[in-house]
Amino acid sequence: MAEVRPDEISAILRRQLTGFESEADIYDVGTVLQVGDGIARIYGLSKVMASELVEFPNDVFGMVLNLEEDSVGCVLFGDSSLVKEGDVVKRTKRVTSLPVGDEMLGRVITPLGVPLDGKGSINTKKFLPIERKALGVIQRQPVKEPIQTGITAVDAMIPIGRGQRELIIGDRQTGKTAVAIDAIINQKYTHSPEAKNLGIKPVYCVYVAIGQKSSTVAQVVAKLEEHGAMDYTTVISASASEPAPLQFIAPYSGATLGEYFRDNGKHALVIYDDLSKQAASYRELSLLLRRPPGREAYPGDVFYLHSRLLERASKLSEELGGGSLTALPIIETQQGDVSAYIPTNVISITDGQIYLESNLFNAGVRPAINVGISVSRVGGNAQIKAMKKVAGSLRTDLAQYRELEAFAKFGSDLDKSTLRTLAKGSRLVELLKQGQYAPVNIERQVVSIYLGTNGYLDSIAVSDVKRFEKEVLEYFEVKHIDIFETIKKEKDLSSQTIDKIKKAAEEFLPAFKKNV
Amino acid sequence: MAEQKVSARYASSLLDSVIQKNLLEAVSNDIELVSSVLKQNPNLNRMLENPVVKPDIKSSVLEEIFKSKINSETMEFMLFVIKKKREEILPSILEKFKELRDIKLGFVNVNVSVASEFSDSQKKELQNKLQNKLKKKVRMNYKVDEKILGGFIVQAGDTVYNASIKHQLDLLKKHFVEGSPITN
Question: pTM above 0.90?
């Protein structure tokens, strides 16, 4: 029988205890003067830094926000009922930071990096402060690679580049989160060996849920898992029941994690869902800290709140590894009012916006993107040539359609060319409709838009457009897979490829019509 | 909060004027005396705080108590405070004065909690160590606290040097339980 010798045990114990025979533990303290509503005022802590993490009794942590002449204002990340007046507060000598690393992928965490998914502790080696200064001009380069969302309307007309900030804005229940989740799911392709051969770098995703129901977050995680997207995604959750300070720092944590990937030459996509709730949390704690209220009772620095966050999105120069951090902030409007304070602020900061409208949503146009007023200011440079070629005419066709849309009710009283524009437009709108969690690859998008803008849909009933698209793409897949391959490889639409598409479509069209 | 600022204002002007007149030592002693009398006689405090009592009466009471025992500068200052209707914060002005004086003279108040009374040689040694470390003159205030089990806790300003057995045990416990993820 194996024997355990007592001296072995004591050796192990001694090893475990090393460092505890150390001499005095030196730390700085202060005392709580006042506490309540998630805010504490502290006397002492004279050497504390702004945004430093401080420790209260009962494992409650706080962050220093106000440094005043004779007191320190602090927000609590835990239950404020556990902190009493007169309690001793300790400095941690560390600004609020997040553990970062590849180990974070596939996990659901709080804004401070504590796992929420019950999959055990996360063994990261590195900490990065959650508030970091955005990079300067020298460290950056223009956006040049595309990030594919898999949503045809977006990839064709509102293209997003790696390192861009594109706002998703709309009322409640218009599918804002759906657009973002589809974008995450579509990044799965970038992690495949095929994408590697084509030189497409993998995109790591961070989804920051701010002030949402925990059940909604759980649903999102389940959907991402179902589509195998959690392997390259981290979800940071500060749900509605968390204290306002945690909701306030959540997007900064997300940006920090994204920056970790970016600074290692990788590509990251961060989704802030949503920033209106973050602004509301910031308003709450600003008012509690007695900062003067301004418009809509937001504090004076609410613009800076979002600008410093979104400015962290960037495309690094080649010397720094060429990594990128793309940001997709989400803003919820009230009754379509984009001229409220927060929406105008964020619109002016971002490089474009995707407008989602509830009347389009209710009319069955899903994703409910209003392509007329949605723009992308820099993504065009990143679009692949093939898409650029077909998207140009798509945009003009749709613009003409919108102009004439009001006349549609006159029906047969219209002249031929107007009727033709209307017919084509309604088919293109139909073509851009797309199911949720069903991202489409870029080569398929190119082919279906080409067919739509070049009159192949005109002879098909509007109600058959979706079926036609599905079947024609299946037909191409089976019979003319080389077309997809060439578009993928060349990233361009050469005249030979166009000829091939034309030929294949003409082969397919009669067969389809026979089946109607 | 506002009270702190006001008392700092009064205290620093008193300090500046007595330094100019070279009376720091004397006025300092007066302030210590007045402050301890106020502490020992809550009734006196209550009278000062009471807005119903007329300022004249407050002045004459203070004069009667202290006139023969303190310098005229200190007396005048207290009467001035009453004239300005700030007598209710007089105790906090006095505290602030002591604090500012200590900073000026390079003194630091050190609170030491010990599990059992230190011997004189131990006290001496600790004082020397602290003076060398802080590069300031220290004034030691000892307090016996059995709850810390052993060792001692020194607090100088906001900095704590914790060498108590209790703290070490707490740290040990945290180490074994693996504590909260933020601290690791």
Answer: no
